[in-house]
Amino acid sequence: MTAVDGLSDVSLIEYRLDGGEWAALDSGGKVTIGDLGSHELEARGTDSRGNVGESVTADAEVSWVTAAVLVNGKPASVLKPGQEFTVAVQGAEPGSDAIVELHSDPVRLGAIAIAASGSGELAARVPTSFAGGGAHEIVVTAVDARGVERIVRVPVTIRAVDAGPAGMASRTQASTGRLRCWRAWRLWCS
Fold first, then answer.
1. Domain membership flag for residue 102
2. CA 179 to CA 190: how far, in whole Å?
3. Which CATH number covers residue 144?
4. Does residue 171 register a pLDDT over 50?
């Protein structure tokens, strides 16, 4: 929030929320509204001579969009390439769309049509191109009718693909040329 007075410097900007007490605006010029729902924000300025200007009012709507990554209906934070999972969204504007991407390399996984309840789901699969593993994010961008974006980031770890037990070639038996069975992730036999 900013204020301008054509005759003298503005020395103080105050605001109040929903008709409450006036409070001085901090130097960053931002107001934090913590409660969900519709709010009335009112602001006024005071110049260096002590003159208090007329207040201006604005309506503010606060909503929180949440997203969860689920595997078999349960929250999941570790996925592997090729694995199926579900992205569940709540609190979005009914009738809108939410775009779902897998970041660090943005890969679009799909879009969710938000139902009248403000929720929706997308069945997706981790691309096999993420075989190297590591820390990533499922990013959900919900856009309301006014074009306002609400972005939710859900951290996930992609587990690296295991090509087989390390040093497998050194586990051959020189006398027979046969490969021993190795029971680590899978049964490997020749």
1. yes
2. 5
3. 2.60.40.10
4. no
